[in-house]
Every structure is written in structure tokens, then in C-alpha cells.
Amino acid sequence: MKVNGKHFKTIWLDGTDVLMIDQNKLPFEFTIHTCADYSSTCRAIIDMTVRGAGAIGAAAGFGMAQAFMAGEDPLMARAQILNTRPTARDLFYAVEKVYAAGLKSPELAKTASQQIAWENEEAGKTIGIYGNELIKPGARILTHCNAGWLAFVDYGSALAPIYAAAASGKKIHVYADETRPRGQGARLTAWELANENIPHTIIPDNAGALLMSKGMVDLVIVGADRIAANGDTANKIGTFEKAIAAHYFNIPFYVAAPVSTIDMNTGSGKDIIIEERSQDEVLWQTGTDRHGQLHTVNIANPGSPAWNPAFDVTPEGLITGIITEKGILKTIDNLKELL
Ligand code: MRU
Questions:
Q1: Does the model's pTM come out above 0.90?
Q2: Per the domain annotation, does 11 fall within a domain?
Q3: Are residues 173 and 309 in the same domain?
Q4: pLDDT tens profile 74-117
Q5: Which of 48, 318, 323, 327 is deepest in the core (most CB within 10 A)?
Q6: Is the dihedral of CA 118, 154, 282, 266 positive or negative?
Q7: pLDDT exceeds 90 at position 330
Q8: 111 and 194 part of one domain
Q9: Quick check: 245 and 209 in contact, CB under 8 A?
């Protein structure tokens, strides 16, 4: 997608370096971060310089290729990369594919990592085309977290249909949940939508049900980090509540994700590992003051502890359909017919 008229991808491989947009600095600063070896790529995944299920999948694949290209111990590198973040399936998918290719040759590891990144981008484009069919002119769409192009190599998952709808001339309005504690909705989704001139409003995380009760939401589209074999879906913490509210108000609730996010080896949501992150993310916030100066400030009672689960699981019964690059699935069983 474009930033100030110039096309960027979220992450790419340049020789043996992995380059990525620094998502911790957005929306206040647009900078490119370079990881010269696989350990730096691991650090960038852990500290969320790169984040979003598809983007960390690409990062993990590139990191695995970096290890092979540098002649590092591939088993150690594989373990280190798999240990960065536990929930997003794309990370595991990418590492295993590149690892298998790298056992044949470092060059094949590099090619496999680039192929994964390309497929991730193409999937987003096609998800946009299918998802656009669900969006009526004038639609008001609620989304949670950031499942836009920053969460992938390009295009995104939940935001891809929104970009396709806007490009096809439909007038739409997007409500972006702020997505505490890291603010992916308020910081990243809003930044993406503003770049594309798509009308949008940031809402507090706890305003979704009120908005729905007022008849102001026609459709909910969210992304996914891992979809279990029965269709239960892990996504950013707070998604489950939105699904319950949408069900209550009879509003369609769609998950958008590439097929690589579906994990047929995980039976149900109960088997999905939910990442828990530092309590500092809840207790402290970073932002700019009115003069543009960046500060990190304490926003809670000093000394009180916090709990910070990064994801929750929406049961498949609350999901109207899954928008994939193979088509829109009513249930996971439909996927078996499409593959
Ligand atoms: O910001 P993260 O990496 O913690 O969040 C992961 C996600 O990207 C979201 O849950 C998103 O909605 C999934 S779609 C890529």
C-alpha cells in the first residue's frame, strides 16, 4: 500500500537483511528497521517492531532463511524463532516450510521464505475481492485490532475487503476499536485508513455494544491469529466480546484470514496457546504531547498489578463466515471441499 504516495510493503528481504516498517513508532514516526541476523529478527517479533499474524509469519520465514544463509545452527535458530510468540499459526507454518527447504540448501530456504511472503500478499488481495461482495454501499463496518496491510506483507485480511470496497467506489465508514492495551486499532488501523482516505472513527474498546444497539454497525470484520479445526478462532483480546454483542444484535460477524492461519492439528479453541504479555503494556502508555514530544507515562495506580492476555478465542458458533483466499467459508468443513 502507499505511504505519502510511495508503495511500501510491511516487511521484505534485502540480500541477507530483513527490513520492516517499525510498527512500535507508528503513527508518530515512519521508519524502516533493519535486522541483520536471525536473532535481531527474533527480537523484532518479540518486541513487536513487526506484528500481526501474517507479518510475523513472513518475519519468521525470513529469520529462518537468514540462519541458513549465515551458516548458523538451523535447529537452534528454529527453536529460537518458534519461541518468539506462541499464538499466530502463520509463524509456525513459515518456520517449518523454510526449515524443510533449508535442509536442502540455503538458497532454497531464501526462495521458500520469499514465496511465503508473496503468497501472504496474494492471499490478502484475493480476500479483498471475496470480502468486498459482503459490503453494501453505505455500509458501516466495525473492526478490532489491526488486520490491515501492516499485519501482513501487504493488503491485510480484515481491512482488505474494506480497501477493495473503497476502490470500487462504495461509500463506507469504518469504526476502529482502539484495542487496548497496545492500541493497534487507534494507532495502526486509523493510520492505514487515514492514508487511504477512508472515513473512519476510533471508538473506545467498550463502546462496541452501544454502537450496535444504536443500529450503527452493519457488519463486523476481524482478523485471526489461529483458527482451530472446528472453526474456533483466536484473535486479539476483545474480539470475543464483539462477537457476543454482534450475535445479540443479529449483526453478521466475519473473520478474514488466509488458509495458512487454519490449523487442522488444533482441535478446538481450548487447545490454542494464548500469549500473555508484560503487565507494563497495561500500566504504561506511550504517546506524544501537544507539541509532538514522545513520552511514556504511568496510567494506573502505582504498585497495582495487571494481567495482560494478548488474545481470546471466539467460538465458531458466533462466526458468520470466514473470508479466505479460496472463498467465503460458512464452516471449516467447506474448506475441505475447496482445497
Ligand atoms: O498486534 P498483534 O501481533 O499482537 O496482533 C495479532 C494480530 O494481528 C491481530 O490479532 C489481528 O487481528 C489478526 S489478523 C493479522
A1: yes
A2: yes
A3: yes
A4: 999 999 999 999 999 999 999 999 999 999 999 999 999 999 99
A5: 323
A6: negative
A7: no
A8: no
A9: yes
State the catalytic residue, choosing from 205, 218, 225, 232: 225
Q: What is the pLDDT of residues 295-324, one digit of tens each?
A: 999 999 999 999 999 999 999 999 999 999
Q: Is the peptide bond before 27 cis (omega within 30 degrees of 0)?
A: yes
Residues 157 and 91 in one domain: no
Q: Could you give the 3-state DSSP secondary structure of residue 244?
A: helix
Same domain, 158 and 227: yes
User: 147 CA distance to ligand 1 centroid (A)?
Assistant: 6
Q: Report the pLDDT averaged over residues 130-146.
A: 98
- Identify any residues that bridge with 296 across adjacent strands, giving them in sequence order: 286
CA of 103 to the centre of ligand 1 (A): 30
Residue 207, H or E segment: none
Range of the domain at 93: 2-124
Which CATH number does the domain housing residue 45 bear?
1.20.120.420
Binned at pLDDT 50, 70 and 90, residue 278 comes out as very high
| Residue 225: active-site member | yes
Which residues lie with the beta carbon below 6 Å from any ligand 1 atom? 51-54, 145, 147, 151, 157, 184, 222-225, 235-236, 310
Q: How many domains does the chain have?
A: 2
Nearest CA to ligand 1 atom 6: 52
